[in-house]
């Protein structure tokens, strides 16, 4: 049995629909964690898991694709690029065990989407409320750069995930890669593209795509947070906007 990478928040509703959705997401997580579609990504994630960083030499790395996690009844979905080689690829939970995750989960806690400001690994008690976190590519890529074909291979998992997360209405796109992935994802789900040129990524950019609203946010990487390109106030404003949109739709 594959261990799910989270302690998901208990469903908000009782009954068959909630149980069915939770079961569907659990089954999808198991399928994702067994994926071997992309030989380059398989080789890299497993190499990293064998040749561990010295600070984590005594830990057993996850070394597999990393499923999304959170509240099955979430209205807000946060979409990242891919698991970090020594973050999610180590812990088995996206944005967990690295500096990007430290910044992001603190913001989610301040916004009321998380029950605690820190996340170190699966089973640490973290629970999300009204939020789901996932990535456009489920395996850690070399140099943090997936190829177009790897991106497309993962799209089918994202389509299945969002179909199961039927209450999601807001997609917070963490970086330009996630923004482009969200545009492709909503198109794959049959949502209208709208009129005019393709929307360009920017921090706090906002665009409607059928039932969904896309929000742009700079990625919480150290390159952005250490330089002040992304501050706590900036991400707090995006999350506040996401909540307001979710509650109005």
Structure characterization notes:
This protein has a six-stranded mixed sheet with strand order 1-3-2-4-6-5, with helices on both faces. The chain has one domain (16-248): Uracil-DNA glycosylase-like domain (Uracil-DNA Glycosylase, subunit E). The protein has helices at 16-33, 39-50, 88-91, 99-110, 148-164, 176-188, 222-225, 232-248; strands spanning 69-70, 76-80, 131-135, 170-174, 206-209, 212-217. Mean pLDDT is 92; it is low at 1-13. α1 runs antiparallel to α5 (148-164), α4 packs across α8 and α5 crosses α6. It is α/β, with parallel strands linked by helices. It is 39% helix and 11% strand. The radius of gyration is 17 Å and the shape is globular.
Shape: globular
Count of discrete domains: 1
Q: What is the topology, as strand order, of the major beta sheet?
A: 1-3-2-4-6-5
Determine the CATH topology: Uracil-DNA Glycosylase, subunit E
Features:
249 residues, alpha/beta, Uracil-DNA Glycosylase, subunit E, 6-stranded mixed β-sheet, 8 helices, 6 strands, 39% helix, 11% strand, globular, disordered N terminus
């Amino acid at each position: 049995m594959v261990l799910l990478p989270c302690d998901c928040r208990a469903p908000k509703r009782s009954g068959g629909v909630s149980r069915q959705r939770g079961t569907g997401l659990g089954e999808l997580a198991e399928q994702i964690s067994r994926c071997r579609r992309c030989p380059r990504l398989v080789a890299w994630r497993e190499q990293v898991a064998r040749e561990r960083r010295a600070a984590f030499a005594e830990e057993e790395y996850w070394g597999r694709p990393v499923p999304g996690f959170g509240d099955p009844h979430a209205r807000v979905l946060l979409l990242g690029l891919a698991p970090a080689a020594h973050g999610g690829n180590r812990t088995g939970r996206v944005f967990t065990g690295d500096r990007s995750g430290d910044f992001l989960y603190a913001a989610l806690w301040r916004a009321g989407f998380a029950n605690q400001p820190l996340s170190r690994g699966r089973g640490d008690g973290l629970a999300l409320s009204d939020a789901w976190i996932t990535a456009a590519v489920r395996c850690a890529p070399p140099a943090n750069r997936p190829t177009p074909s790897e991106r497309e291979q993962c799209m089918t998992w994202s389509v299945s995930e969002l179909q199961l997360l039927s209450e999601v209405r807001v997609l917070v796109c963490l970086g330009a890669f996630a923004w482009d992935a969200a545009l492709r994802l909503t198109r794959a789900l049959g949502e209208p593209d709208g009129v005019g040129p393709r929307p360009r990524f920017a921090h706090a950019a906002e665009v409607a795509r059928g039932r969904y609203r896309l929000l742009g946010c700079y990625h919480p990487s150290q390159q952005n947070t250490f330089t002040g390109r992304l501050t706590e106030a900036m991400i707090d404003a995006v999350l506040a906007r996401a909540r307001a949109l979710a509650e109005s739709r």
